[in-house]
Specification:
This is tRNA(adenine(34)) deaminase. The chain is built from five helices and five strands. By secondary structure, the chain is of the alpha/beta class.
């Protein structure tokens, strides 16, 4: 089971960095991508930022985490045990495995991924003893969870002109009710070797209050995503468990 940190126990510094990841997710949304963004942090500074680019390059492997790893790996060779990843959605199985292979120290995410999650929601790639590439890493969710879910809902409310059989969504209403996260896992998580976080130095940090990330009904974008049998993800799945599905 995925591990969620209660809001009252969340470190303000972790929240500050997650806000930076949300900026990247907003950028993805503005570019017709599934809104997932991430920031890799080491010694109190961001060493890589990325967002989904699967539609832009027609490449299903270009998830935000892998896009960032491609840029930082040359200057920061594995293991990345002193680095923390902040990502708006729980890494999928593919990305969770890649993070294990590069020896990431810790992963902090927003909302869980109840269809493809690799950090406990579906498979515990981050902590499985059957993997021996690098030690297990901590994966903790719940940071700006509602904001991350609402970004995903906004995306999946949009029309998809590239779908083989586009669905009409004009009559759909953007739901704003969000169920609580799954129960906290009773399974102990591995200890991280990362140093203490420090607040982001980006001039954007804190310039947009988290509440402004919550959309109002009618906030739509045009989607270039193609996925699944009918070319789209079912937005009804956005209202179950943690309220979203994975980036394609």
């Amino acid at each position: 089971m995925a591990t969620y940190i209660p809001p009252q126990e969340q470190d303000p510094l972790d929240l500050a960095w997650m806000r930076e990841a949300l900026y990247m997710a907003e950028e993805a949304l503005a570019n017709d991508e599934v809104p997932v963004g991430c920031v890799f942090v080491k010694d109190g500074g961001a060493i890589a930022r990325a967002r989904n680019r699967t539609n832009e390059w027609r490449n299903a492997t270009l998830h935000a985490e892998l896009e960032a790893i491609d840029h930082l790996i040359l200057s920061h060779p594995p293991p990345l045990s002193t680095i923390t990843l902040y990502v708006t959605v729980e890494p999928c199985v593919m990305c969770a495995s890649a993070l294990r292979q590069v020896g990431i120290g810790r992963v902090v995410y927003g909302c869980g991924n109840d269809r493809f999650g690799g950090c406990g929601s579906v498979i515990d790639v981050n902590s499985s003893s059957r993997l021996n590439s690098h030690p297990a890493y901590i994966a903790e969710g719940g940071y700006y969870r509602e904001e991350a879910i609402m970004l995903l809902r906004r995306f999946y409310m949009s029309q998809n002109p590239n779908a083989p059989k586009p669905k009409k969504k004009a009559t759909r209403v953007l739901k704003t009710d969000i169920p609580p996260p799954p129960s906290l896992s009773n399974t102990p998580t591995p200890q991280s070797s990362r140093p203490s976080s420090t607040a982001p130095t980006s001039r954007r940090s804190g310039s947009i209050p988290p509440s402004s990330l919550n959309p109002t009904v009618g906030d739509h974008i045009q989607s270039g995503q193609t996925e699944g049998e009918d070319g789209e993800r079912n937005p009804d799945t956005l209202n179950s468990v943690d309220g979203h599905v994975s980036n394609p």
